[in-house]
Amino acid sequence: MRRLRPLLASVIALAACTSNEKAATSSAGEAGGTLIIPTSGDASDLFPPFVGEAVGRAIQDMVFDRLAEIDTTLTTVGDKTFTPHIARSWTWAPDSLSIAFSIDPRARWHDGKPVLASDIRYTFNVFNDPKVGSPVAPTLTNLDSVTVRDSLTAVVWFKRHTPEQFYDVAYQLVIIPEHVYGSIPVEQLHTSELTRNPIGSGRFRFVKWEAGKRIELIADTANYRGRAKLDRVIFVPSDPATAVAQILNGQADFMEAFLIDQASKLDSNTFARPIVIPLLGHVFLSMNRFAPKSKTTPHPIFSDLRVRRALSMGVDRESMLRNVFGNVGRLAHGPFAMNASYADSSLHAPPFDTVAAKAMLDSSGWRAGADGFRKKNGRPLRFTLTVSSSPTRRRYSVLLQEQFRKLGAQVDINQIDGQPPYLALRAAGDFDAMMDGFSPDPSPSGIKQSWSTSGIGKAGQNALLYSNPKVDAELDSVGTAFTPLMMRQHASRAFRQIIDDAPAIWLYDMVVVNAASRRINVTGMRSDGWWANIADWTIPPDKRIDRDRIGLATPKS
Amino acid sequence: MRRHIVARLGQSLIVIIIVTTISFFVIRTAPGDPFSYTSSTITPAIRDHWRQQFGYDRPIPEQFIRYVGSVARGQLGYSFTRREAVSRALAEAVPRTLLLVGVALSLSVFLGVIVGVLQATRRNSWLDRGSSAVLLTLYSLPDFWAALMISLLFGIWWKVLPANYMVDPSLHDYMRPWDAFVDRVQHLILPVATLTLLTMAAIARYQRSAMLEVLPADYIRTARAKGLSEREIVWRHAFRNALTPMVAILGLLFPALLGGSLFVEKVFSWPGMGLLASEAIGGRDYDLVTATVIIGSVMVVVGNLLADLLHMAIDPRVRE
């Protein structure tokens, strides 16, 4: 025991070294509290020009600001739905080819330096630099340049007057500080230590990123838009089962996309409650008109429009929706989500009609044999359905397999684990049918990437190689409609044509059941990101627990 | 002896080079690359731009030559899943794995040897039969299954110990020193227990066999005839001689433990080498995958070398 004493003392001392000094005093009044958010993965980037996935976007939007912020309607035409952020006000040029943004003189970066007009110019240059390769760059093609009129006035110049030109600059450009990143060669931004420790002007400031472990933000108490009402937000990458357990036993406070098959537990849980949010995305079953990996050889089954329509009509989408989502699901109407500002509720996917579906298959030469399965010229009606690791989509794939079986089609499910191999198959067109989805930003221009001829190839997302001149024309008109009504009319005509061409079976609009701790007052969730107004979420003093009292202490690095 | 060590080091180097080369090519032939994992909203053109920027569009042999050059200069590359240098990721993960494996190995050897000796000295008793059955069961359990069961039982159903992470991921940094120490120990218990139970079973079985070979030996009979106590006979004479084969087995157990830690780290979200490698493979983080394989091979080779040296040190026959 005598020998053990020094060892024990050393171990205790070691533990003491790794812990932090005393926490700072907890915030008083309305502000205060710690939010712990388990996430399905780590962020892949925190530097706005590179951010692409959800965790990175959430942190980017909390740490950085835009010139102006869109409201919950997500209307992208004009500037009426935007509220000032870094820009205190803005003035349109008479020809509408430029907008002068007046920077709020109170705006400060987290290192205390003022936000300047030159930061807006630097931001545009970085986002737009081909050497950077920002995923946002394709949305900035209408921006010509940014000039500095004076230290607090930046003028954004456009190539054309378009309905969404304000949205293009206000929504897509997340303003970054030139004095922090300007000295880094753009080719090295991706691997620079500075871009991993972002300095922004948002209501939360970045504290720490321990890869695979946690990302921590705290309130910027001197922020020009007012301090965040929470003290601290901690993102913790967790596997879904662990995250669900943590939410249900009160160890975590908020989870996006709670496992749908366990969502009913939230109704009676003492720690957390469900918040159902419709998103802008939708999920569909893609039917490849071309043979796998080919861009010219017709697919032996799906190149026939009658077969695609028959399969669309032969599946009971409503019953599948109820089976998977219970009463929170939303049936897809077509190649858009009903929550989008350009949606048209009068459009509908083909109705469920197995008699008509079977007749259509018969007429296209696919005849049922004695075993109930169909053949045409000796070739069985059999195809592979590729599905990612999403549990919801996997459940759907099994239900679809059974529905197709009743029509006389044999389906082999190809479950792909991991995103890279799934995306590789998708990009190469190496599939017969695929459970696919599309999560656009609020602008209808994103639809072009998936359904227009210009979206084919590496610049777009049109993996199905879908092409229809009528659709192209309507989608082009969507981008030039100056009123929301006109925009919806053009979009609606494009959607009608796509539905008629049946390149896919429209299954469901994306809806997530978020889980939030019952002690948190959640306000202003937006369909394009639950975190949009997180700085105004509060935890009432009488509901605070131990972790809410950490205050504004910073962890030891 | 020196020639033997030099020869072993040479063999070890060849093993590491072969393993590294294989892993380098295998991970690159798998579908996807470091830029495939990112959001589906990123267009293929942007992905191609990034691939070109970081040289992943070059022929694989050219990438290999470049990589070997970097490693020779001491640069293990950049991790795109963690946005940090690979050397930094490894510097954090390796000590965590060594802590887990080190504590588990020490406990397994300690407990395994005691159980093995007790079994051998009470051969065919109820203790021997009962513990043999339990050990055989433990020995037969797949490590990932055992880890899942222990995690479920103690971490989720009974909630007596934390079943995830190395410390409380959100509050550890703000705990008082004693609470932080307790937090660290609590998080260590379940993963260490899993590895210990599985490894201890193997050690106990080897130790029992070794003791059973030694106990009937002439020198033990002589010791008994001299009137030594049974305790002295067992621990001073029989045990020390039965320990020699155990040292050789330690060399084999270390890589097995490292392999087992991969599953255990995954199940318990222990941020060590196993979890790092698993996440790197999932994200096609080429440099990180190859580096974890290099470090894993080095650890196995060094472990084996140490076991060999120890074996030579305690067994004169091997030295000859």
Description:
The complex is a heterodimer of chains A (557) and B (320). Chain A is of the alpha+beta class and 557 residues long. The longest helix of chain A has 18 residues, at 484-501. In chain A, helix 9 (305-313) packs antiparallel against helix 11 (354-363) and helix 15 (469-478) runs antiparallel to helix 16. Chain A is 28% helix and 21% strand. In chain A, the strands form five sheets. In chain A, strands 11, 12, 13, 17, 18, 19 and 20 form a seven-stranded mixed beta sheet that branches. A four-stranded mixed beta sheet of chain A has the order 1-10-9-8. In chain A, strands 4-5-7-6 form a four-stranded antiparallel beta sheet. In chain A, strand 8 and strand 9 form a beta hairpin. Chain B is mainly α and 320 residues long. In chain B, strands 1-2 form a two-stranded antiparallel ribbon. In chain B, strand 1 (78-79) and strand 2 form a beta hairpin. Chain B is globular and about 85 Å long. Chain B starts with a helix and ends with a helix. The relative contact order of chain B is 0.15. The model of chain B has no long low-confidence stretch (mean pLDDT 87). Classes of the chains: A alpha+beta (557), B mainly alpha (320). Chains A and B meet through helix 1 and helix 13 of A and helix 2, strand 1, helix 7 and helix 10 of B.
